[in-house]
Amino acid sequence: MEALKDKVLFELGMIKLREVQIEDMKLRIEDMRIGDTLKAIGYDDMPVSPSKKCANNDSNMFAIEKLEAIIKRYEISNKRIHNALNILNEEEIEVVQLVCIDKVSFNKASVKLGKQRQTLKKIRDLALGKMVIFYTE
User: How far is 68 from 120, CA to CA, in rounded Å?
Assistant: First the structure.
């Protein structure tokens, strides 16, 4: 059970990082596609080496496919953790958001929410207990 709670904690901690990485990978894909478009524009008086152009294009297509697969995996991971969050009540979501996702310390979270640290830890642990059902095999 503890290993599953650790998995949930890890997934919660990765949400924001994955969102940033997804956005960055989408920008990289867009940049590669624009770069391919610009390279495809030729001028009549300039020699073009088709073999180099094709090799570079294949390389970019492979890189794009790889990035798209990673994006899909990250989106699925984030969707799964969001699904798990949907089973929590508002108080549990608020605590999990602050402590597990936003990485606010229990001391600061207790001040912000007006609850004792121990109460927040109990709420977090209860929430993690509910969320582990999404990570059991």
Answer: 38
What's the rounded Cα separation, in Å, for the pair 133 and 137?
9
Reported as a single tens digit per residue, the pLDDT across 21-77 is 999 999 999 999 887 666 655 555 555 554 445 556 788 899 999 999 999 999 999
**Which whole-number Å values give the CA distances from 61 to 25, 49, 71, 72, 126, in the listed order?**
14, 18, 15, 16, 46
What six digits make up the tokens of 98?
A: 């602050």
pLDDT in tens, 7-26: 999 999 999 999 999 999 99
Contact 15, 85 (CB under 8 A): no
Measure the CA–CA gap between 25 and 97, rounded to whole angstroms.
25
Q: The tokens of 64 are what? A: 């794009």
For the chain, report the end-to-end CA distance as a whole number of angstroms. Answer: 12
Residue 77 near residue 42, CB atoms below 8 Å: no
